[in-house]
Every structure is written in C-alpha cells, then in structure tokens.
Amino acid sequence: MIGDFFLGGGLAFSLGAMLLYALRQEARWARLCTLLSAVSAVLASACLMALIFGNCFDIAYVASYSSRELPDIYKLSAFWAGQQGSFLLWLLIHAAVGGILCRENIASAGMSAYLLIQSLLTILVLAKSPFFPQEIPVENGIGLNPLLQDPWVAIHPPIIFLGYALLAVPLAYSVGALLQAPDSREWLKPARKWALIGWGFLSAGIFIGGYWAYKVLGWGGYWGWDPVENSSLVPWLIATVFVHVLRVARVREGALSMVHLAAIFAFSLVLYGTFLTRSGLLGDFSVHSFSGTSIGLSIAVVNAFVLLGALLLLTIRANKLPQGHMYEGFHSREFWMLLGMLLAVFIASIVFLGMSMPLFTQLLERPASVDTSFYLRTTMPLAICLMLAMTMSCLRFYGAGKPLPKRYLPFGGLVLGLVIPLAVGIRELLPILLAGVSMMGAAASFLSWRQHALHLGGFVAHAGVGLAFLAMVLAGTGSLSATQMLQPEESCSLFGHEIIYHGQEFLEDRSVKYYVYTVDGREAKALTKLRGNGTDAAREPAIAKSLSGDVYIAPSPPEDYGIEEMTLKRKGVVMDGDLAYRFDGIEIFTDEAQPSHQTLTAQISVTDGETVETVSPGIRTTANGATSSPIPVLNGKKRIRLTGITEDQSKIRIEVLPSEEAFSRIPITATVSTKPYIWLLWLGCTLVTLGCFAAAGASFKKM
Amino acid sequence: MNRKYLLLILLLVFVGYAGWIFSDSVTPYVGIAEAREAKSNVQVKGLLDKNGPAPHMDGEEFVFVLQDEDTLETMTVRYHGGKPDQFDQAHHIVAIGKYREGAFHADKLLIKCPSKYESAK
User: Fold this and answer.
1) Average pLDDT over residues A176-180
2) ipTM surpassing 0.95, yes or no?
3) B74 with B66: CB under 8 angstroms?
4) pTM, whole model, 2 decimals?
5) Do B57 and A377 make contact, defined as CB atoms within 8 angstroms?
6) CB-based contact (8 Å) between B21 and chain A?
7) What is the pLDDT of residues B28-44, one digit of tens each?
C-alpha cells in the first residue's frame, strides 16, 4: 500500500536525520531529513484520511471504524477510533512538532533522541499497519461505535495525543543537555514552554474525557478511577511536577537533576499508560475493554528502552550536573513547591500502584484489582496536604524573604471553603477539610497575583485547581443517589426535586429516541441511539441543569418491553389474547444490482375477530448481516417483527411488540442522583487549562 | 535535623496507612466456587446463564444468573442498580461484590462487549 510506503520512507528519513544529528554533521542535511520525515507522516495520514473518506472498505481499518452512512465529521474521528489510527495520529503530531523543533536552538543530541523516539513510533505504526487490507471483502464498514459519535469524544483523542507527543520535546531537551551541556540552564526556558503546552493539552484532554463520561456514558460521574483514566492521570501529575520543577530550577541549580528525572518519567509514564491500556492486559478489569489482539509487547519494549536508556544516561552524567541546595530555608517558596511536588509524586505513585495491580497480580498468577474506594481514601489526605503546600508557596517569594502581607485573605478563603460544604449538608471531616484548604489555596493565589508574586496564568490555573477540588467535594461527597421505579406521568419526589417521567419519544427517522422527564418543571431528555432493528445502541443520561447543580438520571432500559416471541408453522394459527396469527407463505426478493442483498418476507394474517389484515414483515440480508424492523398491524395496535425462518421455510419466528403508544408508556427503573454545583468543576477545569496556556503564552513572549 | 525525622515519620505513617487501605481494597479475581467462600469483595467473570430465569428487576435490584465458563456452575447475582447499558450485547459479565445469603451482591458490573472499542477479530 502507498500508505505503508510513506511510513517506510518516514522511518528511513527519521533514522537518517537521527544519525546525522548524532554524528553532528552539517545541520542543514539533518534538518532537511527531519522535515522530509514530517512530510512523510503527513502524507501517510492523508492517505488514511483519503481511504476513510473514499469509503475504501477493502482496508481492514476503514471497514472496522467507518461506514458509508457515517457523517463526515465522524469520518474524521474514525481516523483515530482504533489502535493503529491513534498511533498514526501520535506519529503525525510528533513528526510535525519535530519539523518545528529542528529550527529551535536545541542540542543536536537532543534532536537525535527526539528522532529516535519518532523512529520507534513509526515502527509501532508499521508493526500493525492501518493500511492492512481486509481479508474478506465487504461492501460497507461496521461504522463507528455510536457511543463515540459525540463531538466531545471526537476531539478527545487528538487533544490527549497532542499532550502525549509534546511531552517528548522537553525530554529531548533534557537528553540533549545531559549529553552536551550538563551544567547549562539555557534549555530550561524552551523546555518549559513546550512542557506547558503539552501539559495544557493533556489537562484539556483529560477534562474533556471526564465531561464526555459524565454527559454521554452515564456511568454516573466524570471520573471512575478506571485504569484507562488513571493511566492518563499519572503522567499528568508527573507533568504537573515537571512544569513546577522547571521553574524552581531557574533559581536553584540543585533542582536540575530533579528536572531531568521528571522529564524522563513524564514521557515514560505516557508510554507505560499506553502499554497498559493497549495491551489488552486490563481486558477483564476496565470498562474500556481494549480486548483482543494487540501490540502490547512492542510498546513494553519501547517503554523499557526509553526509560532505562534515559535513566542510565542520567546516572552516568549525574556527577556533571551542578550541585547545590534545592531550597533556602523553610520560608522560601521553593521549599513549599518541592514539598508539594513530593506530595504529587506520592499521589501519582498510589494511583500507579492501584492501576498496575491487575498487571502485577497477573504476573503472580493471582489476578486482582483494587476497588475505587482505595484511591479516594489514600489520595484525599494527600490532596489536603498538597493544597496546604500550594497555599504556602503562593504566599512566599523565591529565596529567603518575608512572606506576603494581607494574609487574612487566605483565611477568609479557608472559612468560606469550610462553610460551603457544611451548608450543602456534608458532614464528613476529610472532604470538608479538602474544600477548606483548596479555597484557601485559591485565595492565596489571588493575593499572590495582586502582589505581583505570581503571573496571571499561574493565578488562573491555581484558582482553577482550588475550585475544582471544592466542586469534587460538593458534587462527589455531597451527591445523593437512589434507584427508583418511575411510572409515566406520576410525580415522584426525590431529594427535594420533583421528577415526572413522561415516557419515550421517537424521532421521525427512528434513529433516536428520548426518555422524557421534567425535573422541577424543566424538561430533561435522555437520548438513546437506536440500531436499524430498533434495539438500543447507546444510551445517554438525562441531566437537568441548574445553578445549584444537576439532577442526573442515569440511563436504564424499561424493565419489560412487553415483547412476545412466538413460532408459527406454515398455515398454522396461534392465538394470543384477543388476536390470532396465521403464517401464509414466504417471498424472496433479490436486489439485481447487488445479488448478495436479499429481502425475505413472510405473509402473516392477523385478526382480532372482526377484521383480517395481512402484513409482510421482512428480513433484509446484506454482506454485513441481517436487519429487520417491526411492521404495524391493525392500525398500529400491535407491531410484528420477523426474527427467524427455518431452512425448509416451514416455520418462522416472530416478535409481537405492543403499539408504539403503549411501548412508550412502560414504567422504567432509573438511578437518580444529585450533583450539587458540578458546574464549578467544569469552570475550575477550564480555568486550569486557560491558565496553563496563558503561562505558555507568557513564556513564548519572554523567549 | 529534628524536622527531617518528623518528615520521615510522617512519611512512614502514611505508607503504613496506604498499605492498610491497600490490603483492604484488593479484590481478587475468582471463580464462582471461590466467590461463595470469600470473606471480602471479589470479582467474578462469567456468562449470562440462558437456561436460568430471565434477567429482571426485583425491587431496586437487577437480578440475573451468572455461569462460570469453565465449570458451568451457576450463581444468582443481585446488582444494586438498574439494568446496565449494553447488558443485552454482553459477551462476558464481570460482577464485583460479595456473596451472602444465597446470592452474589454486586456493587459494580463490568459489561464486556467485544465490539465496544475494537472490532471482533
């Protein structure tokens, strides 16, 4: 395939550029090779894009994730819907950034390391190429999972991968510095700029993922401590440490070794997370079910290679690094920052341990995992200490000096943060403390900004963290939940909210139905996407939003669909209640243009004793399987769906469904929960991301 | 120096605390026979027993029969909550909870659909 050809070319160029940089040959040629490798990655990606948009289902990847009917916007996201495509996307971003990076003042050894990673990524893509042909030809693809057909999750992977890929840049700077100028601190500024951008994208990606889980998946929350979620949280935490220690190292030479360590671990953990989630090892432990074949081993090898190689380099060059104190007394900002970073590393280690349990225990042949309470109980005390350290560092200057004046402001924040959860009705000590100290931190960052001790970006991001923690306490600990049977049009009072279920509402083209509720007089609809045969494909929750928080009604199908199955013999009559059914005969239609497309219909007469009606429900078979839809009889009183025919055509199986009217009035069991002030979480997360990009922007200006 | 020791002690206290919670929250992966005996939370993987009573709601609990893939043993599972999304397309079901009074009381169900994110191979 031409795509593989571009990938192979890209690999050759990146290996060539790597060697040229390593031999410190003329930079012009090395740069040209780097640019050519980036062009190859762009062309390979364009190839896959063209195959998807051209409906080339003779390619296995296209057949698995796209289909003719898929809207264009989701064809775009089909690009990264699967494993191979997402690696190609990663490679594309990595290579494109490489094209920018080679124009910067980066050590040639660093560029060499960056291109080595790029070559490894290319090998990973080639190992299980997205351009692999489909073995059995199909006329249409399977299409994208309906759960993934949502704008939020469509943009989630590229943003996460941007974050992943960009974290390789500071690693390249770090390796370059270790090899060529261990005592230099020149590289810290550009490295911090890239680290901030990468960290910002990673944050945005995680937040978007959480919002999608809340809005679409309907698991009941934005975060489930699922291994897949944790595997992005750990590198994010280490990247957080990284951007902070990069700042400390500008004033404290002694922190340089920690900068290198953080750079190495941030990127290695990205690889480790990818390995864990893509290897299929977690298949039985994660709701994300990446089961089946995988390239886990190759990722593990790349991961070990990057981690061990970089650590070995650091150990060898450690004595060349400048020595010195990491902080100047307990009243310096850097002391509290380092303490906070240590706490963040603790949190990361705990999450790392928890998410790796399935892997470790499988190696010991006693598979086990930890339940989610483990994460909450261990990280909450640490988060409280972390917020305290954040407050203290915001109130101090680098080096020895007096703390900021006007310290009553943070105390005001503390009191406010303690009172709000109490007012919402939370009576647990640790969550209340967490809310208190996080509001204290937010107030301290405000004070610090007013006193010119913190940039605007820093203030916005830290205030966002404080708000996010407060919201997690309010919407998490403060959430009430109950599973309740809801009868249509009957008012039900739960947690001070009046909830009425109105039944189901179908869209005209039958692609979507809604479960309609009113919560305190406002309408809230739960969307359910339907398959061609009318069964549920994906369910979303109903969310009634208000200033005091959301009422969240998790999706649940009606308990009893009222569907009856029956088998009819040819010319035999089956009675069911007031109605009688008779199977008269079968007709087969073949589509002349496409002989593999067949429609089989069964003639069935239905009578209620007064009128007789004959209907012909059918099964349509294509190369991709069979579909059948219900046909109304007797003015829609019942609906009949053909589900099976014996080979000798003597018997058929049908489903008798109640009328649409009756169907939509079936009572349902719903899990209703309150999410007090959850909008504060979206606000806090947005502030963290914005603050982060503002800080990155500011570091651009200073260059 | 004193402060350093204090930090060290605090660190040890925390590691001890984390270890304790850790041992408390480990949920091993077991077969149905073992699940019946287990004292703590466990995870059981199986298939829906098609011969047993149909999955249904009993009050606020969703009830179905889980069958061990290897031993073909069966066990009633009572899940506190509504019927999970995609239950009908389930390939495998993982129930997490504890066995008591003749049934497995699950706090969480993982529904494994082969086609959820990767196509069936």
Assistant:
1) 89
2) no
3) yes
4) 0.85
5) no
6) yes
7) 778 888 888 877 788 88
Residue A366's contacts (CB-CB under 8 Å, 6 or more residues apart) are: B28
B 29-48 residues with CB < 8 A to A: 29, 41, 43, 45
Instruction: Output the six-digit token pair for A326.
Output: 């990491």
DSSP per residue over A341-398, as a string? HHHHHHHHHHHHHHHHHHHHHHHTT--EEE-HHHHHHHHHHHHHHHHHHHHHHHTS-S
In the sheet with A491-494, reading across from the earlier edge strand, the strands are A491-494, A497-506, A512-519, A522-530, A536-539
Q: Which structure tokens are listed for A625?
A: 């399987």
Task: Give tens-digit pLDDT for A186-221.
Answer: 889 899 999 999 999 999 999 998 998 888 876 667
Confirm whether B8 is domain-assigned. no
Query: How far, in Å, CA of B9 to CA of B4, rounded?
Result: 9
3-state secondary structure of A582: strand
Q: Could you tell me which residue, A170 or A106, shows the higher pLDDT?
A: A170
The alpha-carbon gap from B82 to the nearest alpha carbon of chain A, in Å, equals: 6
**Cα A251 vs. chain centroid, distance in angstroms?**
36
d(CA B26, CA B10): 24
Residue with tokens 């929350």: A221
| Whole-angstrom distance, CA of residue A168 vs CA of residue A191 | 10
Q: Do A177 and A108 form a contact (C-beta atoms < 8 A)?
A: no
Domain ranges of chain A: 1-149, 180-370, 481-560+664-676, 564-659
Q: Minimal CA–CA distance to A110: which of A231, A7, A21?
A: A21
CA angle centred on A318, ends A173 and A199, rounded to 5°: 35
Q: How far apart are CA A635 and CA A254, in angstroms?
A: 83
> What domain count does chain B have?
1
pLDDT digits (tens, 9 = 90+) for A37-54: 999 999 999 999 999 998
Residue A613 reports pLDDT greater than 70: yes
Residue B92 lies in a domain: yes
Question: What tokens appear for A607 in the block?
Answer: 């009578």
The larger pLDDT score, comparing residue A15 to residue A453, is at: A15
- Whether B69 is covered by a domain: the verdict is yes
Collapsed DSSP state (helix, strand, coil) of residue A655: strand
Q: What is the CATH number of the domain that holds B61?
A: 2.40.50.140
Among A65, A381, A483, beta carbon nearest to B82: A483
Task: Tell me which of A52 and A152 has the higher pLDDT.
Answer: A52
Orientation angle between helical segments A256-278 and A333-363, nearest 10 degrees: 30
Distance from CA of B30 to the nearest CA of A (A): 8
